Amino acid sequence: MKQPSAPDSRHILHVVIFFLLTFGTGFLPPVGITAMGMNILGVFLGMLYGWTFIGFAWPSMICLVALGFTGYADPGKVIGSAFGHPAVMFTMFVLAFTTYCDRSGINDVMAKWCLSRRVFAGHPWIFTSSVLVGTLIIGFLVDGVPAAFLIAGILYSMFHDIGMEKGEDYPAYLLAGVYMAGVLSFACKPWAGQNLMGISALNDISGGSAVIGNLTVIAIAMPVSIAILLLYTLAVRFFFRPDISRLSNLTPEYLDTISAQIHVGKEQRIAAAALVIFLLLMFLPNVLPSGSVASFFGKFNMVVAMVTILGVLSFLRVDGKPVFDFHSCASGINWNVIWMLAASIPVSAALSCDGAGLSRVLSDILHSFAAGGNILLFLAGFMIFINIMTQFTHNVTIVLIAIPLIWNLSQSAQINPIGFSILMFLAAGAAYATPAASTVGALSFANGEWVG
Length: 452
Known about the structure:
- The model has no long low-confidence stretch (mean pLDDT 82).
- The two termini are 42 Å apart.
- The protein has helices at 6-24, 35-53, 57-67, 75-83, 86-104, 106-115, 124-141, 144-162, 169-187, 193-205, 214-240, 252-260, 266-287, 292-298, 302-315, 326-329, 335-351, 358-371, 375-390, 395-413, 417-429, 439-446, and strands spanning 317-318, 321-322.
- It is 72% helix and 1% strand.
- β1 and β2 form a beta hairpin.
């Protein structure tokens, strides 16, 4: 009989632990929480363990079904609430739209335009900071993962042309910053996973009294993210001090060759228009004066806006073919992301429900901690804790657990829940320090040849 290999044995062990956590925790005596709360806690712990050591899809499926047998809700209702949530629907549509933007060539146009500005000639640190901020902006407009891929690909060619090689310090620092910018771009988007779910959760738990506008998130997160990237540039220049002598080869003539590769045709113009329209539909309800026009545009929430844009793009024809083909662009829908989102929504809601008793226990702990010292030190410690946790587990789950705590604490400590929540979004969005932190984080650690 064939003996299982070491990797197979480890996988079997992880699967056994996953099922023990998911279905066995409820048999332990409750400690400060209800029996239902113990069952829900087991599903939550099993889900985190499964995501960390096994995978994303089937552990999420098992945990969704398991939640339906904890006494929280019927299994069918749990699954229906998961996939009927606007955040899950929007994520499916926006992933298809992101694939369309990549295939249309608009990503490539924006990347090459940002890198080919003649002001960079003879100014290596302006070039460095502009590459990072440009990656942030492109990632904000489209998606941080393809933006990091695109910018990195162009940089590889540039390094080759000016004589820089793998293993040198400057390419490593610049590429690490590009990946960092890709991660931060998610923190700036109101429609990114953790922000979208956090905004919705705060609105629900506050009964509509604490509403975070899209412009508010961007107005706070974008300047903070740009400042982080500029500080990183200063650290590379004055602390790490890599050799940048060969950046003198970034001549106006060389930058012109990059600019000459930019091609804007019908498809790129249509994709750019779709991006602009989506952003306008997101922002107009926040800037228009109250009235019938603002009320009309207010109906275009993120799901409605994205479905409308995809419908119009599917209707339009270029050279006899539809501009947007959902069948082909659906290949860009990452089902691991969808299942993670779908599972985290009802599980996180169950954790914070009154019948579980978990939120009460955690709130009491945080309240006693906050009451025992300076509230600013507590806030700083809370953000650091959130940031550390998001390096090892899914930030959507962290955000959904934190929002009820933030709301309860804001009521007793007189803290603005909107400002508190946006700070928490930033802390949860900066998932970069480990390979498990995010997709872009995994990309940075996988690029050992250049980044190290």
